Structures are given as C-alpha cells and as structure tokens.
Amino acid sequence: MRDFIQKLPKAELHLHIEGSLEPELMFELSKRNGIEIPFKSVEEIKKAYDFHNLQSFLDIYYQGANVLIKEQDFYDMTWAYLLKCKEDNIVHTEIFFDPQTHTDRGIEFDVVINGIDRALKDGREKLDISSEIIMCFLRHLDEDAAFKTLDQALAHKDKIIGVGLDSSEVGHPPSKFERVFKKALEEGFLTVAHAGEEGPTEYIWEALDLLKVKRIDHGVRSLEDEKLVERLKEEQMPLTVCPLSNVKLCVFDKLSDHNLKNLMSSGLLVMINSDDPSYFGGYLGENFIQCQKELDLSRDELKALAINSFKSAFMSEENKSKWIKQIEQL
Ligand code: HPA
Ligand code: ZN
After folding, report:
1. What is the pLDDT of residues 112-156, one digit of tens each?
2. Cα 329 to middle of ligand 2, angstroms
3. Which letter, b or e, does each residue of 115-145 get, where b requires 16 or more Cβ atoms within 10 Å of its Cβ?
4. Containing H/E element for 11?
5. Can you tell me the distance from the alpha carbon of 225 to that of 219, in angstroms, rounded to the nearest whole number?
6. Nearest Cα to 220, choosing from 280, 171, 268?
C-alpha cells in the first residue's frame, strides 16, 4: 500500500507554507538572522507541539514564523516543502501564505511573496511541480487590516490566484470579511475560506453565500447539517480535509474516529491535505498512509481521493484530465 500511495499523483490544496517550517530550519534561520527563539533544541521544539485546540497551535505557529526575515528565508522554507512534494509525488500544489504574520513584524510584503514565488518557479523548472499561491487574511484581525493587505496584493496579481481566510475561527465568522472578499472578487481573485473546522456549520453557509468560495477549507463539521450536505453535494463543492491536523488539534480524538469516509459516502467532494505538516506529524504521503491504515481505505478509495484533488484544483481542464487518466490507469 505504501508503494501504491507513493505512486499516486497527488495535488495538495490546503497547505500553509509557514506550517511547513521544520524545527531544523527554524534553528538555522534563528542563528542566521540573530532572532532568539524560546527553545534550546529541536527536541524541545517538538515537545512543545502538543496542542489541545486551534488557538494553542496558532500561538506557537506565529512564534515560529518570527525567524523568517529575508527573501531567501521564504525561498528556503518553500524550497524545502517542494522537496517533500517530490518525495510524496505531489505534482501540483496550491499553497497558502499569511502576509499579515510578517508585515505586522515589519517585513515587507514584497520580500515574502518574492521569496515564495521564486522557489515555486524553480519548483516548476527543476522539479516539474506546478503550483499556485493563495493569500490568506488573518480573521482575528480586523476588516481594515484585511483591506490594507488586499491593496498590497494588487501589485502581485500575476503571482496570487486567490484569497482565503484562516487563523482563529470561532468568534470570527466569514461575514466579518464579506466586503473585503467582494473587492477581491472584483479584482479577479478566486476565493476560499477555512470554515467548519472548529466553527459551526453557519460559517460554512456564510463562506458559500457571502464569500462565494470555490472550496471550503476543512468543512468536517458539514455532516451536522443535512441541508448543508445537500447543497455541498449538489454543487460538488470541494472540502479540503486535513486528517492529521484534525487529530492534532483535537477536532477528532483519534484518526480512526475521523469522518473522512462518511464525507465520501455522503457524496461530497473531499480530498486529503496536510495543512501544517511540520507541526501536525506528517506531510501528505503520511496523511494518506495513516488514513489508509486507520480508516481501512481501499485502493479505489485512495484513487478517488487523489482524483478529487485534481478535480478541485485551480488548474486547466486539460491538465486535470491528464492526471486523472493516469490515476485511473493505476
Ligand atoms: N486553521 C486555521 N488557521 C490556520 C490553520 C488551520 O488549520 N493552519 C494555519 N493557520
Ligand atoms: Zn489550514
């Protein structure tokens, strides 16, 4: 099965690039940039990755990002992720980045986007991995800050395909950003949003109706609302599910309790993603391997998940068909 999983061509659609920063690189960058981090060793960092909910993770995740200062730092982090993609046979990836995490520390927007974009370009040329960038607004910050960030992104429209919404979900409904997303849509960005990870199903309705999203990130709480399931099924709205993340953040007690299979059998368009692999115990391949084992996924189910990742990607129909055909032939 391991071999079969490795060979499956995959697209990853829910990956925060800052969440791919490995402890080893965090240490290297802390030294390189003279930034103190409150850990003495890689082991100490790993021990701190014991979360009880989304917020307990976010507190550590934003702290980790403090070591990212120069364009080359963003390049190195992104390049390291692309090498992991190669190992897992991820042939297409759509990565999130959180500009406000960096601009609020005085790092220029251009430094962040240019470092990430340069690595992705090299990824296309040297590793044959296609990619897109999605810019996320931090939902715990206010609407004005999001508008300011959107303004900064306009000069980089050629690099950014869409906008998303992440960070602390509960208490920060999609409706808070309705006007920002309206402007983003007018500017030609596609939209996605985290909803129904910890937050209620109402947030998923708002993401669909107010933010006009093309995908729901997470959405695992959808099954609590029959009408919503009907809507998601009818529209074949993709849900970018992140199983290891959900267990690490205690959305489910253990992987064998995850509702991935129920989402699939309800006719929903779901696929597997890694979210923040450095923090949650594994990249996409590891998510597939552990889900296969704990949820007893068949080869056909694994293939369906990989096919769904391409169906849901921001990719030409021609390229989607090419990959889907390859998977069908396995
Ligand atoms: N949810 C919300 N915000 C995030 C996440 C997540 O899973 N990962 C990084 N920022
Ligand atoms: Zn996420």
Report:
1. 999 999 999 999 999 999 999 999 999 999 999 999 999 999 999
2. 31
3. bbbbbbeebeeebebbbbbbbbbbbbbeeeb
4. strand 10-16
5. 11
6. 268
pLDDT score recorded for residue 6: 98
Q: What angle do CA 156, 157, 159 make, to 5 degrees?
A: 70
| Predicted local confidence at residue 283, as pLDDT | 99
Region of residue 69 (phi > 0: left; psi between -120 and 50: alpha; otherwise: beta) = alpha
Task: Give the chain's count of helices (H) and strands (E).
Answer: 17, 8
Task: Give residue 96's identity as a one-letter amino acid code.
Answer: F
pLDDT of residue 233: 98
CA 31 vs. chain centroid, Å, equals: 28
For ligand 1, atom 10: residue with the closest CA: 167
Tokens of 9: 């061509």
Q: How many CA atoms are closer than 13 Å to the CA of 162, on its beta-carbon side?
A: 21
Residue 280's CB is within 10 A of a number of other CB atoms, namely 23
pLDDT tens-digit readout, 160-172? 999 999 999 999 9
How far is C-alpha 128 from the chain's CA centre? Answer: 20
Q: Which domains does the chain have, with CATH numbers?
A: 2-328 (3.20.20.140)
Atom of ligand 1 nearest to the CA of 197: 1
| pLDDT tens readout for residues 236-260 | 999 999 999 999 999 999 999 999 9
Of the listed ligands, the closest to the CA of 165 is 1
Ligand with the closest atom to the CA of 197: 1
- Our answer to whether residue 294 is catalytic in this structure is no
Distance 97 CA to ligand 2 centre (A): 10
* Ligand 1 shell residues, CB under 6 Å: 16, 19, 54, 166-167, 194, 197, 245, 275-276
pLDDT score at 64: 96
Measured in degrees and rounded to the nearest 5, phi and psi for residue 240 equal: -90, 90
Q: Which residue has the tokens 């950003």?
A: 177
Task: Give the mean model confidence (pLDDT) for residues 50-58.
Answer: 97
* Amino acid in the structure at residue 264: M
Provide the token pair at 107.
Answer: 């790092």
The reported pLDDT for the residue numbered 294 is: 98
